[in-house]
Amino acid sequence: LSHETIACLFRLFASAEETFSHCKLEHQFNIDSLVHKHGLDFYGYIKLINFIRLKNPTVEYMNSIYNPVPWEKDEYLKPVLEDDLLLQFDVEDLYEPVSTPFSYPNGLSESTSIVEKLKHMEARALSAEAALARAREDLQKMKQFAQDFVMNVDVRTCSSTTAIADLQEDEDGVYFSSYGHYGIHEEMLKDKVRTESYRDFIYRNAHIFKD
């Protein structure tokens, strides 16, 4: 591409990088900053270059632009210059960090470090999938438990009513005196709290238990 040139406002250059550098140093116009400022993608960058080629705006005007940008129309996708090398420049390169010497841990190369990162990301993804599976399993268990619990409460209610009706007066004293121990009271209170908690959960999440 040594025989090809890129047009700036006043000069021709052999590469996009040289053009950007010239615009920044000589005209205080930073293409890089403009791309980041407006978050331009591939098509946005092409429209920007063609807009500048077509309108030949001042640096002051370009630096003062805020959204919405004036090059949004699709008409700016049409090249102004034939074989414009600036349009062939990969705008994603402007989003990459500047290359600096970097020492990877444990003597790893860059490619090895990337592989390690990918493995770490894969492990996190698998862990997330496993956690989701466990959550679904727990939800199913809770749903089944709640259904069984409701059914058992109904059965126990009927059974308890019959049993209490059959108790003799002298049997009542023996039966209830057996609950005088503190530990039994504690368990009964815990059961009551658990029962009310389950009941409240079922009421708040009735949609889960609908068939």
TrEMBL record:
It catalyses: L-arginyl-[protein] + S-adenosyl-L-methionine = N(omega)-methyl-L-arginyl-[protein] + S-adenosyl-L-homocysteine + H(+); L-arginyl-[protein] + 2 S-adenosyl-L-methionine = N(omega),N(omega)-dimethyl-L-arginyl-[protein] + 2 S-adenosyl-L-homocysteine + 2 H(+). It is an enzyme of class 2 (transferase). It comes from the Eukaryota. GO terms for molecular function: histone methyltransferase activity; protein-arginine omega-N asymmetric methyltransferase activity. Its main location: cytoplasm. GO terms for cellular component: cytosol; nucleus. Signal peptide: none annotated. Its EC number is 2.1.1.319. PANTHER family: PROTEIN ARGININE N-METHYLTRANSFERASE, PROTEIN ARGININE N-METHYLTRANSFERASE 3. This is type I protein arginine methyltransferase. It comes from Neotoma lepida (Desert woodrat).
